[in-house]
Design goal:
MetI-like fold; 267 residues
Length: 267
């Protein structure tokens, strides 16, 4: 009886904490939704959403941020997947140094990072330093800690030495080992890194504002200065778009990753 009571109490506390955690996330969203629907003192409607969807600046800033997110994800993956794999395989002594470097974007203020990028790349062509690619570089620096730590956790979870030696014993080249053997086993880590990078780019405000690029976060901040209900509506739209994009990436990654794992011979 005592054991049953303890178990019942444990499950009761578990449901209590689950309800509190759910309320912590859901209640602010519901409050924002109710506020975004207000059209008067006691009237509600979808006027704010209609105005935003019909605003060309909304569509331009949204597509611009999505384009930045895609480029940032591609660049950081191309740079960090081979780097993390090689460090784990051949250069384990460099792991403390790289882990220290991953902390720097957290302690360096964004305004310092922006000034450093503008001065550090002043020797580059005008189409680069004056275009959105320099913002992609900045986002890549901000995403570096999240992407590397996700990949690091994924590499720790598999035996890359055994997989590499087995593939090389069958005559596989380094590119084949990386893309046909290691990468399919890092599917979850790569998707997690992509999700985090997408969320970061969609919500980052400081760099876009300082570099004067019309990102989605900058557009939300501007709307918040002129229309409170519009800013609430945009916040919910941003939340929904981010989760829909994440779900799409997840489904695509599971489908493509499953086929790649079968071709690579690893499950």
């Amino acid at each position: 009886m005592a054991a049953m009571r303890r178990r019942s109490r444990f499950f009761t506390l578990g449901w209590l904490w689950l309800a509190l955690g759910t309320g912590y996330f859901v209640v602010p969203l519901l409050a924002t939704l109710v506020f975004s629907l207000k059209t008067g003192r006691d009237t509600y409607g979808v006027t704010a959403y209609k105005e935003e969807f019909l605003d060309p600046a909304f569509r331009e800033s949204l597509f611009f941020s999505l384009k930045l997110a895609v480029f940032t994800i591609l660049i950081v993956m191309v740079l960090l997947i081979p780097t993390a794999y090689w460090v784990h395989l051949k250069l384990p002594r460099l792991r403390p140094i790289i882990e220290f470097l991953t902390i720097l974007p957290f302690v360096i203020p964004p305004i310092v990072l922006v000034v450093g990028l503008l001065h550090g790349f002043r020797w580059t062509p005008t189409w680069f330093r004056g275009g959105y690619l320099i913002l992609v570089v900045g986002y890549g620096v901000l995403a570096f800690p999240y992407v590397y730590r996700s990949l690091d956790a994924g590499l720790r979870a598999i035996d890359i030495h055994t997989l590499t030696e087995a593939a090389q014993s069958l005559g596989a080249r380094w590119t084949t080992v990386l893309f046909r053997v290691i990468l399919p086993n890092l599917r979850s880590a790569v998707l997690s890194a992509a999700f985090l990078t997408l969320a970061l780019v969609m919500g980052e405000f400081t760099m876009g504002q300082l570099m004067q690029f019309p990102t989605f976060a900058v557009h939300i901040a501007y709307i918040g200065q002129v229309k409170a209900t519009g800013a609430a509506a945009l916040s919910l739209i941003s939340f929904a778009i981010t989760w829909i994009a994440m779900l799409g990436l997840l489904l695509l990654g599971l489908r493509v990753g499953g086929r790649a794992a079968q071709v690579g011979g690893t499950h």
